[in-house]
Design brief:
nucleotide-binding; UvrD-like_ATP-bd; binds adenosine-5'-triphosphate; single chain; alpha/beta; Rossmann fold; 4 domains; DNA binding; globular; 3'-5' DNA helicase activity; hydrolase activity
């Protein structure tokens, strides 16, 4: 007997249970709607209460497109437990549906015949238009090792993709669930080939953490960091669908937006500016702003003048500099320390000054002025401006850290006139963020989910890391998809830059997106650009469709339009991924042929949710489409600064397809891809 057996007899009782659960949810909502926020003790509390109640009412809305539960587990003793997206209880307060994140729900995801966790039967519900359409049972006490595949799971994985990414709460796999439910204080790093569910797992982990540690994380905040706007838009519906609307989403660039980015560094400058050695250069450059006192502090007070000699001020400054506090915190302590030194002199002279005198001395004009001269306020932009435009300052800060050639790379050829007119690069604003943190500690969030982490430079990783310095992080990525010249080759190193050397490394290798025919093709690139990393093993039943179309250059545009039209004949989304340089011409060709489409960019999304999306190759990361049409792989690879990065970019582009991949090219394919073709 197969392990997962379709059940037909229980359909009606289960539908009745669903109807009753829906009625319970309606009652819960009506009760929340009837509560009067004006019963709070004052206006502010009433407002707070009104907001909380509105949120609660919204979270109790029934979604007619889905059911309240997707699974059920039976233990030896009744009652059975129904698992759904949210908790529902009846009038007596007894649970009718359990939230998937509740500890008791864990068994639904993890119980197996080898470890049944007290579960005797797992039931999955097939859902169609908000109604239960199928039931599948798995007997966990069965001894035989027969077919363990689930048709409902297969159906979910095979369904055509339309619109933004959906949650996977009904079909989270045991190895994914282990990551989702890792302890709140554990930082997890997930390495996984394309389509192994890293993003899905990261988002469900955020939802689980918020449910399990609501008080702590609601206060401190949870943030998801992704590569660009198009990606954030793609994933934006997942957490709200799980009832979590208060999770921030940001690109890595927006995290450090201290200035407008108006220039692009050369590759070698960008790599160097992203190198972790820059942290030491910046630290020295900043702290060198603290001056050496040459004059004594003179404080007239009444008939007397109090003097603190320069050497004594120097001792105070030295002590403050070695305390391990941030620059501004130490700077703020200086007037009080000077006042204390004055106080000691007053006492020695027979006075008995109290705390108020110390306070007034610290705030006095001469002390404030003297402090500000010795320890000036510093603007991060000025520090960086001076480093890039003044070779002597740079040499002083970089001595023993960067060699002369490296320093030359960093210096501006034509320095801007001032920090205000300086044209900062992406790497520069990341360095500004480091300087801001050296001045004053960056507040830490409770948890950060960092996606596509392999692409960040060490300095960018530090910027993300300081945003969860007191919390934990979930890092998601794939070394083989690293497409920046500074991409990481080692998760151990990346996690150290993030400030989390103690972490769990997990590997996901079952591919839920890319069908076998497509992954086999893309995986030809792996030995040359990520030796040692394997391709995912596709769990898809559908082996997919791969078409390579070689055409003459003048036929390319027509072939492309033909490929898009043929993709549109099947259900699902169509991604047309082209070299960045071809975006404008391709958009024109689509328009001329009457093919409506959206265009994605680093900063732009398709609000209208067209079926066809035109995607520059550099924006494709993390996205997926039912059908993918790729134009001219060799141009996509050649647009990158080096061969390895080019092949990795191509690997990303080729692994976006759920059902079919069409490759249109007039140039020969890169040799690594063409091999064994
Ligand atoms: N357990 C699952 N059940 C159903 N679908 C799943 C499951 N895990 C992942 N998927 C689906 O597989 C697809 C790929 O997932 P996801 O985008 O999270 O992969 P990824 O590892 O982040 O890929 P990439 O490295 O290419 O960005 C998505 O459509 C996701 O919903």
């Amino acid at each position: 007997m197969p392990d997962h057996s379709p059940v037909t007899t229980d359909l009606e009782p289960e539908r009745a249970y669903l109807a009753a659960a829906r009625a319970d949810l309606t009652r819960m909502r009506e009760r929340a709607e009837s509560l009067d926020p004006n019963r709070a003790s004052d206006g502010d509390s009433a407002y707070e209460l009104a907001v909380t109640l509105a949120r609660r009412v919204a979270s109790l809305q029934d979604n007619p497109h889905t059911t309240l539960f997707f699974g059920r587990i039976d233990h030896a003793d009744p009652p059975p437990r129904y698992i759904g997206r949210r908790h529902v209880s009846n009038d007596a307060g007894d649970p009718v549906v359990l939230d998937w994140r509740a500890p008791v729900s864990t068994a639904f995801y993890r119980a197996s015949r080898t470890e049944p966790m007290g579960v005797v039967r797992r039931r999955r519900f097939g859902i169609d238009k908000g109604q239960i359409s199928a039931i599948e049972d798995e007997n966990l006490l069965a001894a035989d090792e027969s077919d363990s595949s689930s048709a409902i799971l297969a159906q979910e994985i095979e369904r055509p993709r339309t619109g933004p990414m959906r949650d996977i709460v009904a079909t989270i796999q045991p190895e994914q669930d282990l990551i989702v439910r890792s302890d709140v204080d554990v930082s997890v790093c997930v390495q996984g080939a394309p389509g192994t569910g890293k993003t899905a797992v990261g988002l469900h982990r955020a939802a689980w953490l918020l449910y399990t540690h609501r008080d702590r994380l609601d206060r401190s905040g949870v943030l998801v960091v992704g590569p660009n706007r198009a990606f954030l838009d793609h994933i934006s519906a997942v957490l709200p669908a799980l009832g979590e609307v208060r999770v921030g989403h940001s690109t890595a660039a927006d995290l450090v937006a201290h200035a407008r980015v108006r220039s692009v560094d050369s590759t070698e400058a960008a790599v160097l500016k992203g190198d972790s050695r820059m942290a030491e250069v910046l630290r020295r450059a900043l702290w060198s702003r603290v001056g050496r006192p040459t004059e004594p502090l003179v404080l007239p007070r009444g008939a007397r003048k109090w003097r603190i000699p320069a050497y004594e001020v120097q001792e105070i400054v030295d002590e403050l500099m070695t305390r391990g506090v941030r620059f501004n915190a130490a700077r703020e302590m200086l007037p009080r320390r000077l006042a204390h030194a004055v106080l000691l002199r007053m006492e020695r002279a027979g006075d008995s000054p109290d705390d108020r005198v110390q306070e007034s001395v610290a705030r006095s004009g001469p002390v404030k002025k003297y402090s500000a001269t010795v320890w000036p306020a510093v603007d991060p932009a000025q520090v960086l401006f001076d480093l890039w435009s003044d070779s002597e300052r740079l040499a002083a800060a970089a001595d023993g850290v960067l060699d002369a050639d490296e320093q030359r790379i960093l210096l501006w050829g034509k320095p801007a006139r001032s920090k205000g007119t300086a044209k900062w690069s992406v790497a520069d604003v990341t360095l500004l963020d480091e300087l801001h943190d050296l001045l004053s500690r960056t507040p830490s969030l409770g948890h950060v989910v960092l996606d596509e982490a392999q692409d960040l430079s060490p300095m960018q990783l530090r910027a993300v890391g300081r945003r969860c310095s007191t919390g934990a992080i979930t890092v998601l990525g794939d070394i083989a998809q690293g497409t920046t010249p500074w991409a990481t080759d080692s998760w151990g190193t990346a996690m150290t830059h993030l400030g989390k050397p103690e972490h769990h490394l997990e590997v996901l290798d079952r591919g839920f997106r890319v069908p076998a025919a497509v992954i086999d093709f893309a995986a030809r690139l792996l030995p040359s650009m990520a030796p040692g990393l394997g391709a995912p093993v596709s769990v898809r039943d559908n082996t997919g469709e791969l078409r390579l179309v070689t055409v003459g250059e003048d036929e390319r545009s027509a072939a492309l339009i033909e490929a898009v039209r043929s993709a549109l004949a099947d259900p699902g989304s169509v991604g047309l991924i082209v070299p960045d340089a071809d975006v404008t011409a391709t958009a024109k060709a689509l328009r001329e042929n009457g093919i409506e489409h959206g265009q994605l960019g680093v900063e732009s999304v398709d609000e209208a949710d067209h079926r066809v999306q035109l995607v520059p190759a550099t924006v494709a990361k993390g996205l997926e489409f039912d059908h993918v049409v790729v134009l001219e792989p060799s141009d996509i690879a050649d647009a990158e600064p080096d061969t390895r990065t080019g092949l990795r970019r191509l690997y990303v582009v080729l692994t976006r397809a759920v059902s079919s991949l069409r490759v249109i090219h007039s140039r020969p394919l890169p040799a690594e891809l063409a091999e064994h073709a």
